[in-house]
Amino acid sequence: MPSAGRTGVGTNQEDVRRHNLGTVLGHVHRAGRISRAELTARMGLNRSTIAGLVTELESLGLTEQVKPSGTRISAGRPSVDVRTRAGAYVLATDVRVDGLTVARVGIGGAVEARATGPIPSSHDPEAIGDSVVELMRLVVKDVKADAALVGIGVSVPGIIRAEDGLVRFAPNLGWHDVPFAQILADRITTPGRPVLGNDADLGALAEHLRGAGVGVDDLIYLSGEVGVGAGVIVGGRPLEGSGGYAGEIGHLPFTPDGKLCHCGSRGCWETEIGAPAIALAVGCPPDRVAALDEFLNGVSEASPDLRTVGRNLGRGLAAAVNLLNPRVIVLGGYLRALYPLVSEDVDAGLGAHALTAPRELVKVSVPGLGGDSVLLGAAELAFGALLRDPVACLATACHDVESVLAS
Amino acid sequence: MPSAGRTGVGTNQEDVRRHNLGTVLGHVHRAGRISRAELTARMGLNRSTIAGLVTELESLGLTEQVKPSGTRISAGRPSVDVRTRAGAYVLATDVRVDGLTVARVGIGGAVEARATGPIPSSHDPEAIGDSVVELMRLVVKDVKADAALVGIGVSVPGIIRAEDGLVRFAPNLGWHDVPFAQILADRITTPGRPVLGNDADLGALAEHLRGAGVGVDDLIYLSGEVGVGAGVIVGGRPLEGSGGYAGEIGHLPFTPDGKLCHCGSRGCWETEIGAPAIALAVGCPPDRVAALDEFLNGVSEASPDLRTVGRNLGRGLAAAVNLLNPRVIVLGGYLRALYPLVSEDVDAGLGAHALTAPRELVKVSVPGLGGDSVLLGAAELAFGALLRDPVACLATACHDVESVLAS
């Protein structure tokens, strides 16, 4: 296929070095611990260049070198392992209809502290901003003095304009064009503005990097919250669509002249597998629908109505399988609690409607990161600036977070 | 987002030069004629480098420099236009259920000669290979003595294994695992093996490069032949899926417990908008279904049944719009003839089921390349080797095509 206008090669040496520094850090960040020999192989650079980059990351307080843990004997000089050090962290926030979660996540991806709280019932963005900052104060209390806050990442169940973090539309919060990144920036005086992402997109990102989709270039993450959205990775890259609206899988036309959907249409897939439909099928009272996953965890056997939901889940997945040919489909949110109850019915619905060739390739899975996919995706989003250019990011990072979050 | 393991930068100068040479040629090939100033701007290289590359392409017989055609006055030295020369061509083949088309397509993308013929009714691959070669002989009769055959591209309505041109499955030809690239290679002794592609993927490619999707990074091309397939471009790149099976949009689950589909499932979208369904709705006799587009061209007004097909077409498109958020949907094959008859119904079906935000961004269109999208996509596929490395490709190109095609 013809090249699509790639520009000529000609790069500044310092830019290349910073790019490579960030790439090395990215490998260590995702692996947690990795040998220098493996870094050399993955980067396609020579040993001395890698050694120099690793030394620079060490001097920045981001990584450290340790003796390899195993006792394997191999030819030549033994390699050295590189692992992350607790010198940098991000604050990740998951804004859900049923609550708020904030975590402090260290370089390397481990959750160092976590706090959860209710979401203000008004769903007022300013009030939610206040609550998020209160939770942030809780998770930074015991942060090490020499650790730097390098980013803030936030998941919102809605459509986000990436460049400025405007929430274009979040139906289940009742938000239209809410400048939520700015609302947070007004409360947290870090140099870098908080970065926002869509919940399903972030779930897909985290599962791709650290969960059920590691090494998988074609993956769909379904976020079952109130409705159903999808984060899609194709050919190793996020599927965005021409306006950033891709992944609205809950609104697949599913049942002709079916139930009215909150989007205004009839018969969307979501009317058959959304939280209200499942609640009805399992007898979950209306006031507990927001915590449907907990209710489902208490169900021991699927009723015929719930099995119908499972079959409809599989039939809709077949649409995605035939169109996108993914390798893995991760069922997140309440679908994670639903799947074990109705996996046979999901498989039956999928088998009846997916073509054989893509059906044979796809694996339906619960998240590898449990209930943390979206939260950890928000953390990865926040680490983006550090991994693009560690030197520049650390130069403006925040070392006195408690004062920054002072009310 | 973290970088996905890009290796360190460090490239051979000669590789870079050849890459840039191919990229310049690609710009001229797609534009037909382009100023050197514009090439300089698009490539991000300096004027003297561009001048050197253009001179090399000229010495290879691929392009020539001419005075600009316009009378615009601009500051500084006037630029020079570069246009393609008839020094290289490909042979493009479109294998359809209703016939065969072969074209000689010159660098620059113009069809220089074309021949069509029936497809052997047995659909026997060897017999089809013979017919293709006979058509090729017709289109090369008046080829210029100094022109080089640089590639052979073939469209097949099926799933292709890219690396060796094995047709995994072409339901409407009854093919399973047919080595059609090898069958052609056995008959045409050019150095390069024929390159095969899926019809819808090639339609999408050509419409993206030269048709209704120029400058559009998110595009869907629907090939209405007997069934309906999709070629999808997302973020400027073809959507392939984990096994190359993506785009099977005809098998979207559409009508619960609907009509039996040839794939073995029930209620696929294709059972409502495929050629047999349309033929039934317009009273097209069974022996003319293969040329349904011609029949539709003779229909002046849509019957209520045909309008239902149009509405179902729109409802299915809504699934693609909500999931993929394309900028353009191109209706190819018989859908091109159908659309003008039922465009209001298509719009109504789409409007009732697509979300507002992606609906506002998408344009439904007939092909910019008329009935030639797939054929020209096969030509683009064939030009791939030349555009990747003009020097290496021309070194092995064929200058005596008539002997190569001798029986």
Would you give an account of this structure?
2 copies of one chain form a homodimer. Helix content of chain A is 40%, strand content 21%. With 407 residues, chain A is of the alpha/beta class. Chain A folds into 3 domains: 13-68 and 78-84, Arc Repressor Mutant, subunit A (Orthogonal Bundle); 88-201 and 372-388 and 398-404, Nucleotidyltransferase, domain 5 (2-Layer Sandwich), CATH 3.30.420.40; 214-367, ATPase, nucleotide binding domain (Nucleotidyltransferase, domain 5, 2-Layer Sandwich). A 5-stranded mixed sheet of chain A has the order 6-5-4-7-11, with helices on both faces. In chain A, β13 (228-234) and β14 form a beta hairpin. The radius of gyration of chain A is 22 Å and the shape is globular. Chains A and B meet through α1, β13, β14, α10 and α12 of A and α1, β13, β14, α10 and α12 of B.
Taking the alpha carbons of the first and last residues of chain A, their distance comes to 57 Å
How many domains would you count in the coordinates of chain A? 3
Largest interchain contact: A-B, 86 and 86 residues
The CATH architecture of the largest domain in chain A would be 2-Layer Sandwich
Task: Output the CATH topology of the largest domain in chain A.
Answer: Nucleotidyltransferase, domain 5
Strand content of chain A: 15-25%
Name the CATH class of the largest domain in chain A: Alpha Beta
Q: What is the general shape of chain A?
A: globular
CATH superfamily of the largest domain in chain A: ATPase, nucleotide binding domain
Quote the average pLDDT of chain A.
Answer: 91
Q: Largest sheet of chain A, described in full?
A: 5 strands, mixed
Helix percentage of chain A: 40-55%
Organism (chains A, B): Aeromicrobium panaciterrae
Keywords (chains A, B): Kinase, Transferase
Pfam family, one (chains A, B): ROK
InterPro entries (chains A, B): ATPase_NBD, ROK, WH-like_DNA-bd_sf, WH_DNA-bd_sf
